[in-house]
Description:
Elements: E1 4-7, H1 16-31, H2 37-40, H3 48-56, H4 63-82, H5 93-102, E2 106-110, H6 116-123, E3 131-133, H7 146-154, E4 162-166, H8 169-177, E5 181-185, H9 188-191, E6 196-198, H10 206-212
Parallel strand pairs: 1-2, 1-4, 2-3, 4-5, 5-6
Helix pairs in contact: 1-4
The structure holds 6-O-phosphono-beta-D-glucopyranose and magnesium ion.
Amino acid sequence: NIKGFIFDLDGVLTDTAEFHYRSWQKLADEENLNFNRQINEQLRGVSRMQSLEIILAGQEVPTAQKKEWTDRKNEYYQEYLAELTKKNILDDMEAKLHQLKKAGYKLAVGSSSRNAKKVLKNLQISDLFDTISDGNSVERAKPAPDLFLHTAEVIGLEPAECVVLEDAESGVEAALAAGMIAVGIGPAERVGKAHLVYTSVSDIDFEEVLTKI
Length: 213
Ligand code: BG6
Ligand code: MG
């Protein structure tokens, strides 16, 4: 019996996945690191430092250097965030959130991003959620189930009562590991392990989600 929905943020509620990509690309160009859109696909849902590790692909770099690079990437990303407004909410997500809330479901955000609260504030949808879990909420990042389990606990739901919406492979894995229903958004190569898959955010049909699972 589904009682709540936990939304990933970047790539599900808003198009910031593109800004993460551009910020990494800028850093990679400056530092001659091998990076492209294809490598970027592996960074969805992955924490900031772990993202750099994936880009480095085993290349050894001093810790202080890694810190400077991730800080710089975040500065570039925050430049995009400064311009973020309601217009950056993906498709009719806001209307869908209102409908779910009206129907009595608990709503939460479960994001790996340490910028999540700022993003939601700029999108002007923070108040819609019963709780917001972000990159500071737990130690172990997705694909560990910790972030989603923590989120369910805060809103007082059992894992099996929660549906997670995710655009990342690591996020779908985290939702499944948590014992929740996973709805994947994107190509099957990326989110195919989810219980239900939609190609894009605009295709999500919550009535169907609730009847099919
Ligand atoms: C996730 C994104 O939501 O947050 C990742 O999908 C990103 O691409 C991660 O690396 C961490 O974000 P931030 O804002 O803490 O650097
Ligand atoms: Mg995401």
